[in-house]
Amino acid sequence: MANIVVLGAGGWGTALATLAHKNGHTVTMWSPFAEEIAAIRRDGQHRRLLPDIPVPTSLQLSTDIACVAAADLVLLTVPSFAIVQTADAMRPHLRQGTVVANAAKGLCPDTGRRLSELLAEHLPTARVAILSGPSHAEEVARGVPTMLCVASADAGAAATVQELLSNKRFRLYLTADMVGVELGGALKNAVALAAGICDGLGLGDNTKAALMTRGLAEMSRLGVALGAEATTFSGLSGMGDLIVTCGSMHSRNRRAGILVGQGLTAAEAVEQVGTVEGYFACATAVELARRVGVEIPIIEQCYRICYEQVPAREALAALLARPSGGAEKFGC
Ligand SMILES: NC(=O)c1ccc[n+]([C@@H]2O[C@H](COP(=O)([O-])OP(=O)(O)OC[C@H]3O[C@@H](n4cnc5c(N)ncnc54)[C@H](O)[C@@H]3O)[C@@H](O)[C@H]2O)c1
Question: Which entry of 105, 168, 188, 208 is annotated as an active-site residue?
Fold first, then answer.
């Protein structure tokens, strides 16, 4: 039995905390928001995000970041924009060599750096791993069979995450390709936003299948240019996560995209849906792609819709007007 601390008490944090608790570990779930912790304690569940999933009283809840001091494993589930401030807050309390697994998806909006790079810098004594792949919190919390990747340059850290979190319905696959797993998890949000726009415009299954396939090719091209292994993108944190995010109403990126396709501005859609990581990811991806000289036309048009107020139909027309391509390395 291990001591696991989950930072972030939203949908994903609550799902992973209840999973770790069912696995028999001592679990503490932390949030910086006293009202959030008080509501979970009062209701015995996260009523807004995971209704009817019991949060047992033996699962400890805290607003004190010092709770990481006793952890064998810290799981980060705060939104990507809050990773650095959370890492800085926990640093004075973290024991040397503690495994810190980041389960948030995204890239640093200002620099395009991966979250594991930021964690390595801000938590120099931690052993950093990444947990990513096709996973709706709602389904993990209900015990729906789910498979994810754990990536780390530290094979021992990845194995610790696998050993502590795995059960018969939650299987974890290990890889050393942190770049591929993190870029897969971040870039698929931009493609999911585009897939939602496609749905909101009322286009058909053919269009959506093409968008997902070509979107995956864009993710692979950019990922490989940034140091990822191409095969990672056909795995759980590439194609797997893309399928789950582009096809489900659980996905906030897709839901926001649908609203944009139906005529809302991207800012209005984000305001309505809440955290939409794809909105930020498409801007970061465009910047990264320009830096390394890679074409990502779908994500680029998504960026124009979000930040240059280009109407969705005009962006679609621009994509369809591109010269026809031949077969290429990352799937035609
Ligand atoms: N929800 C899912 O199904 C799911 C699945 C896999 C990965 N993820 C990823 O996990 C991350 C969190 O997603 P979520 O759906 O749980 O989000 P959420 O908005 O439901 O919850 C985030 C939680 O983080 C904490 N938090 C919020 N702002 C914070 C801040 N400024 N500083 C510190 N802590 C803060 C709060 O406890 C909040 O409830 C995202 O990067 C998302 O892409 C989510």
Answer: 188
Cβ of 12 closer than 6 Å to ligand 1, yes or no, is: yes
- 106 pocket-lining for ligand 1 (C-beta < 6 Å): yes
Average pLDDT rounded to a whole number, residues 259-270: 96
Pocket probe mutation, ligand 1, options 5, 12, 29, 149, max atoms within 8 Å of Cβ: 12
Per-residue confidence (pLDDT) for residue 224, from 0 to 100: 98
- Please give the order of strands across the beta sheet that includes 26-30: 60-62, 26-30, 3-7, 73-76, 99-102, 127-132, 146-151, 170-175
Which atom of ligand 1 is closest in space to residue 30's alpha carbon?
A: 37
Q: List all residues 6 or more positions away from 232 whose beta carbon is below 8 Å from its beta carbon.
A: 175, 177, 180, 181, 184, 223, 238
* Ligand 1 touching residue 137 (CB < 6 A): yes
Residue nearest to ligand 1 atom 41, measured at CA: 104
Sorted by sequence, the CB contacts under 8 Å of residue 222 that are 6+ apart come out as 183, 187, 285, 288, 289, 292, 294, 296
**Residue 22 annotated among the catalytic residues of the structure:** no
- State how far the Cα of 109 lies from the Cα of 54, in Å rounded to an integer: 35
260 lines ligand 1 (CB under 6 A): no
Assess whether pLDDT exceeds 90 at residue 330.
no
Which of 93-97, 105-109, 175-179, 231-235 is predicted with the least confidence, judged by mean pLDDT?
105-109
Q: Is 109 in the pocket of ligand 1 (CB under 6 A)?
A: no
What are the structural domains, with CATH classification, of the chain? 3-176 (3.40.50.720), 179-320 (1.10.1040.10)
- Look at residue 123 in the predicted model and tell me its pLDDT: 98
- pLDDT (tens digit per residue) in 97-148: 999 999 999 999 889 999 999 999 999 999 999 999 999 999 999 999 999 9
